[in-house]
Amino acid sequence: MQPVQPEWAAELDLALTDLDARKDDWAQTSNGERIALLQQVKDHLREVAEAWVKTAVRKKGIPTGSPLEGEEWLAGPAALMDGCNQFIHTLSLMEGKKFLDRLPVRTLPNGQVAVTVVPNSLWDKVLFTGLKAEIWMQPGVTKANLAANTASAYDAPATSRKGQIGLVLGAGNVASIAPLDCLHKLLVEHQVVLLKMNPVNDYLIDFLRPALRPLIEFGALRIVRGGTDVGAYLCNHDLVDDIHITGAAASHDAIVWGPGEEGRKNKAAGTPRNSRRITSELGGVAPTIVVPGPWSNADIAYHAELIATQKLNNSGFNCIACQMLVLPESWDKSDALLAALEEVMQAAPSRPAYYPGATERLAAFEAHADSVQKFERPGGPACVVVPFRPGTDAYLENAEVFAPALSVMRLPAGNAESYLRTAVAYANEKLHGTLAANILIHPKTIAEIGRPRFEEIVAELRYGGIGINSWSGVLFALLRPTWGAFPGHTLDDVQSGIGVVHNTYLFDKPERSVLEAPFRIMPKPAWFLTHKRAHMVGRLITEFNYRPSLLKLLRIIWNALRG
């Protein structure tokens, strides 16, 4: 006797049947057709952007008119608009892979190839002052074979492609994650997509459906809501070929191995319940390594704002929020940096801890600590700060808290190079996950170490995204770099996930993306927690991404300077 299906199953079956009927048509669309659809998406997105942000701000408890609205602009409509732009750029130059002609390529001290993807235009040089983002390729990729290892999914004639249905399980925290994951499946992997939104932010469906209507009307995309029951049904549906999840490792393992005791037995036996290809982005315990050097008081103040932003952007609900702050034990600036960090958090704009389960996760974090400090912040729970000693409770090195919580590890300093090598080894060997890490280091210290040797040390840091004097989260927003864990994880030890997204130049074998910024950027970046006009800048960048102009750029600069 067949089990009785829930009422919603018929709707999901219909959506998948519609996608199945159009999957080959989508796979065989020309670059020109895809560019035209993306241009239409931009038009529709512009129409709903304002309402999208207002709704997200209300749902997250951000006060109306707060500079924090800038986060919802920059990580919402602005990012999706720019995602369309970047794929349009690549597709328009796909013939002969001409988009590679404009990208500087160099060989690193360890022999790997690095490609600069930001800045890639005059606009970039102004908008992203001083930033440089590179993609470091896997060993074996050379300057000579780079083109052969780029956009290989576009090498065969479009008419020969066969379609698949990809299931995207959306993230509940950052608004642009789910639609950008869909663009990756559609444009990089030629798959039609069923997007299941996370219940935490499924209010975005009211804006994503009209924004992405051209793709929906083509038959390449469907968007649904539902909880774990809907997710489980879709993950095991006969029509679903491929799954991408952004979330927790526990959710990934439940999909692959099964829930509860069944899952544990399957994992131990190496017998997955779900044999589909599954890619993932699963977070971790992200470190920020502070390297000793000749920091001034102004340097300390600036980097306290940067670290506070790494921790409290989106109220701390980011998979790459700094969770382990690594400081030099004998450095006379470490205490001053922590004191400045506390001051920044105390003066931060007011916001609540909106994501479900935060109270329980913070309580668990505290329960594993020998001692606790609390950095108060307006309108929400204090940031829980735990002094951590090597060899104590490994929970703090392995559990992603996904809340405003921070461990502080002090390592023996020695000289800057030996300290940095020790910190890199600690992050690699002790901290769970390989999604992203940060290094804060004075330029004079880099010069003392030597640029080639410094890059050799960075190459030893096994993370998929590395921010140097910046935040690795900016790599997510830039879209040209890759976003995902360091390669090599397996289903039975998935860590921060398998595969990458974004990567709008379609490199086949990236190893990591590295973002380097000046030690202090002026004017203050609009994504800083402390920027007073971030809400204005975020709105203006969204409009600029829709249709760039010099006048719009000047307005962005004017508001950025006043932040």
UniProtKB/TrEMBL annotation:
A molecular function GO annotation: oxidoreductase activity, acting on the aldehyde or oxo group of donors, NAD or NADP as acceptor
Top-rank lineage group of the source organism: Bacteria
Keywords: Oxidoreductase
Location of the Aldehyde dehydrogenase domain: 219-374
Designated name of the protein: Aldehyde dehydrogenase family protein
Native source organism of the sequence: Mesorhizobium neociceri
